[in-house]
Amino acid sequence: MVNTRPRTKKTRNQSGALIASNDDLLIEILLRLPLTSVLRFKSVSKNWSSLLSRQPFTLLYKNVSISPGFYVRNMYIPFDVENQIALPICNLDIHPHPCSIRIVQSCNGLLLCCSKHGIQGERKYSVLNPTTRQIALIPSVLGGRKVHKNIRFMGLAFHQTECVDYKVVCFHRAKPDEDMFRIQIYSSETRRWKISDESFSFSAPYYESLGSGVYWNQALYWAPFSINPLYFKIDTEELQSLSFPVEVAVESLGDSPHGAMPLYFGGSRGHLHLVLKANRSETHLHLNVYEMLNDRSGWFVKYRVDLDELLNSYPEISTCFYEFQLLDVVRGEEEDETFMVIRIPGNNIIRYDVANKSGKQIYDLSSFIDGPINHAEVHRYIETIVSV
Predict the structure, then answer these.
(1) DSSP one-letter code for 232
(2) Any idea what DSSP says for residue 121?
């Protein structure tokens, strides 16, 4: 005979306890919840917090690749002003020194930040997750103040599957008056710096940094472009030469006006992009978006983008073309969801959808920022629940 008696409170409690004690079953349930619920459930217990912060949950969670917006000089701007995804942190006030902080690099949901405080304004670095509101302070590099004041590059390497323990890579001059650079690597797994056997020569003024970093395919790339561009492979700790499309003349990587000057260099959804102006005309906005092959053997044209139609909606571009800036190329989950983030004269930010060839203003920065925006000041925000 089938038992048709209703379940008692005791029975329901036993069922709930059974689910809560079964990590595999619990993961299957929580994977189906929105990000805000997952973050809230972290406070249920220490076990739940640990479960939701470590693998395999962080690798399986489906919402980790959403890119709802970007930061410009620490100010958050959503990509879609009509359907904004709630951002747990729109400024960086959780940092112990929020007034002096600046974002150095964004890497798959984590931010590498820098602040000046302490003795003679010594720079302090940290890794921040805006989604979980967590921050990890990075200890000073090996070698003390003598090495610290010669730092010219700090880059962050992180990926959910290929670099799950984030790393911070430091390039510093061996001596203040030399072009030889040494490399140090910090690992979140060991919480320590180590000195790499690799070193390289790079001619740059003593006061100039090597620009911001771009992590892609287990390697860290940096700008500005040089006559002998390199990238650093994280897994093998090796420096390799980086090739460019033939349209990028060697002279254009220095101060010469010849050749096609890159407008953008960055990654999105596992793709590395380089954007060039397709012609030298000041009155036409024809761009070639190159994508690097996964084996790094070369580039191919992924998109040919004609932005001339923007001139009809935003005629100020034609009179101040030199103020046109391509800030970001964002690949969508589907091929027809790719878009560009563009700054036009007047500091208006435009989202241009590549497939339907339409643009719309998403933000007016005129009251906040005066003049051009440095590419090193633009950092994409991606939701991720990993702990730092």
Answers:
(1) E
(2) G
Which of these, 379, 163, 343, lies nearest to 266 by C-alpha position? 379
State how far the alpha carbon of 287 is from the alpha carbons of 79, 94, 276, 349, 352, in Å.
21, 39, 6, 18, 13
Task: Give the pLDDT confidence of 185-242 residue by residue, as tens digits.
Answer: 999 999 999 999 888 777 665 555 577 789 999 999 986 556 667 899 999 999 998 8
Q: Which residues have a Cβ under 8 Å from the Cβ of 99 and sit 6 or more positions away?
A: none
43 burial (CB, 10 Å; 0-12 / 13-18 / 19+) is: exposed
- Residues 236 and 148: their CA atoms lie apart, in Å, by 25
Burial class (CB in 10 A: 0-12, 13-18, 19+), 278: middle
CA distance 236 to 217: 13
| Phi, psi (degrees; rounded to nearest 5) at 81 | -75, -20
Q: What angle do CA 282, 285, 287 make, to 5 degrees?
A: 120
| C-alpha span between 327 and 314 (Å, rounded) | 17
Q: What single string gives the DSSP state of each residue in 130-165?
A: TTTTEEEEEPPPTTHHHHHTTEEEEEEEEETTTEEE
pTM reported for the whole predicted model: 0.83
Please tell me the distance from the alpha carbon of residue 87 to that of residue 80, in angstroms, as a whole number. Answer: 13
Peptide bond into 224 cis (omega under 30): yes
Inter-residue contact 55 to 384 (CB < 8 Å): no
Cβ proximity of 209 and 220 under 8 Å: no
Q: What is the mean pLDDT of residues 357-368?
A: 86
Q: CB under 8 Å to 238, separation ≥6 — which residues?
A: 198, 232
DSSP 340-381: EEEEETTTEEEEEETTTTEEEEEEE-TTT--S---GGGEEEE
